[in-house]
Amino acid sequence: MEYRELPHGGEKISVLGLGMGYISGTTEEIAEVIRTAIKNGINYFDLAAAERAPYVGYAEAFAGQRDKIYTQMHFGATYENGKYGWTRDLATIKRVFEWELDLFQTDYTDMGFIHCTDDMDDLQTIKRNGIWDYMKELKAEGKIRHLGFSSHNPEVARRLLDTGMMDMCMFSINPAYDYEKGDEYGIGEVQERARFYRDCESMGVGISVMKPFGGGQLLDAKLSPFKQALTKNQCIQYALDRPAVMTVLPGIRNMQDLEEILSYAKATAEERDYSVIGNFTPQKAYGTCVYCNHCQPCPAGLNVGLINKYYDLAKAGDIMAVGHYQKLNRHADDCIKCGHCEARCPFHVKQETRMEEIAVYFKQCDK
């Protein structure tokens, strides 16, 4: 296993980590998967799940091995009803954190992350209602070793970097989200994302990567915006080659998924080589939203790229994406069908029809 050193702190973090969003099975099965991961050198674990049940399996696996692992806990994810929820209520956040510490029999988390901050209004809420002050207090007490955040939005993420207090962040990185084909297609958020990675590196802020496979879309030619499948090893290597990246956190379901991820450590250079993406032409992506936000600003205030991203992730089985969509200030049914986005889209996506489809989908999720 390869390890990378966190600039602020010096922790040696495995380049392969694990997300727990998709894991399932009995407590014993989950515990065995995590023990196997640790035996194979994985030491970094994100602790945001689709439901509460897997936590017990993780706790059993972590028992007696606290000095071998790094935990990434999210302040704003809640499981008080058994399923994943999202909150900005300070009392709830405090209650969840104390529950996690008690369950894992520890008195600290290595990484304390503001959970899923994707818009400016939400960032202001975090500052106003005491969440940020609470986390800084925990940092001073040693209950959080490193402050950080998770986000899908490079503009918001950059604002958090500007606090000068961040040591780590969680960001979605893969070839589809970073899509670019020459200067002609250096559009929208593409350069902003690249600049964010470089800023993290220059500021000594590490990145843990979520969604390395684009919610599974990049592994399926029918779903990929490139109309061609990539392998897991190609996607992992792509993420690891971005500036500031410490570790890649694929979501796994079971032991088979873990074994597939671990195969990266033994993969040849040819098996990891992702240079094939240089052959993907923009025309191959026509009709598919790649979340570039070249359509911004939307006259109705919609974050078109983020709405599309949450929709695609939700359809691919990411339960947490539903909650992330619901907390947006503007939703698909707020579309006024003015034609602005379709006129500006370089990939000719029919967003007005797409917004109708997305609105129906998420309304069904509310039932």
From TrEMBL:
4Fe-4S ferredoxin-type domain boundaries: 326-355
Coiled coil: none
Keyword vocabulary terms for this entry: Iron, Iron-sulfur, Metal-binding
GO molecular function, one term: metal ion binding
PANTHER family in alphabetical order: D-THREO-ALDOSE 1-DEHYDROGENASE (PTHR43312), NADP-DEPENDENT OXIDOREDUCTASE DOMAIN-CONTAINING PROTEIN (PTHR43312:SF1)
Protein name: Aldo/keto reductase
